[in-house]
TrEMBL record:
Any one GO molecular function term: nucleic acid binding
Lineage: Eukaryota, Viridiplantae, Streptophyta, Embryophyta, Tracheophyta
Keyword Repeat carried by entry: yes
EC numbers: 2.3.2.31
Name of the protein described by the UniProt record: RBR-type E3 ubiquitin transferase
Known cofactor(s): Zn(2+)
Source organism of the structure: Capsella rubella
Keywords, ordered alphabetically: Metal-binding, Repeat, Transferase, Ubl conjugation pathway, Zinc, Zinc-finger
Entry keyword annotation includes Transport: no
Pfam (any one): zf-C3HC4
Top class in the EC scheme: transferase
Stretches assigned to the RING-type domain: 163-376, 167-215
Pathway annotation: Protein modification; protein ubiquitination
Entry similarity comment: Belongs to the RBR family. Ariadne subfamily.
Amino acid sequence: MMEEGTLERAHDLKPSPSDSDMYMLYFKGLVCKETTELLVGFGVAILDQDENLLFQMKGPLHGSGITDLEAELIALKRGLTEAVSMGINHLSICCDHDQIFELVMGRSAPEVNNIALLVDDVQRIRQQLKSVIPVLVTDQNHQASFVTKLAMEAIDYEISIRRSMTCSICFNNNFKAEDIFSSFLCSHRFCKKCVKRYIEVKLLEGGVPRCPYYQCESMLTLSSCASLVITPRLQEMWEERIKEESVPMADRVYCPNTNCSSLMSKTELSKSIKQGCVKCTMPFCINCKVPWHDNMSCNEYKRLMGTNLTTEDKKLNLLANRMMWRQCGKCKHMIERSEGCIHVTCRCGYSFCYTCGAEWTTRRGCSHKEEMDGDLCCDAI
């Protein structure tokens, strides 16, 4: 779902309305199709019963393929949210869009899912007010023209920014508007080439892509990155990373089949030690994190493996030593550190020292942790 971009407010006065005070909300969402890239802006104004302006707001809207109807509903949603935050109890919603008026009145049903979700949001926020009266006005109405102007100003400002835009990653400012990517939650902008490469690296590292701007925590989504033409392989990887983040670290279980490695949650598995992968169906031991060991207990298997390694295990250990890989002390997966701090966190959530393998804690740790400079440590992670 699309969200507002950078907002500009004015006359942000907080009224002290009584139960009988009636206020008016004017709103407008505009889609500009005259440029090489779709630009969307919105304007909101709240007036008292004497038509004195109490609040106004304008800003861009960012998202892939926003329609006129979506832009109008997002503007209305934003206006209603502000009215509630201002303590208003009675409100007239002044619409100059016939279809919006019919949707708000409940006379027509949304035809597509994203419109239905926005209408649900509008009705939910509307219920927080004591009374709401939708009013159909003409686009010649003075206040309707005023919020239209606010929306146009937001679009004009967006155009001016894009013309003088510099990518925050490569610092290049010599590209066309269609080569710009904007994170719709925070409005930070980059060239598409840099963002696409950043997403690929982030996914390969096992993370979920966020806005690449320094210290920005806004999440990127597959829908917001549609213009980047993400490959099917990266899309699948992205969906897997999202699934990983939804499962608490302590509950994550990975299939030991090297050709699968599918993620499962302990809460979705039975309490049996012997499990079957939900994807490849291979049976495995949830305690030992290995393919199922027939006719052996976990202790017997561990004793046997300690003294009787297979040829494949010996090759893996030799390769791990040569490549300086480390084995997670909890889930036993091999980990390779490409750069950065010696404090590493496995995808299962276990943190340890990459130099000696000791568990990493915030209060105390191995001697290597004590020797580290504070600015190199990642204890906050």
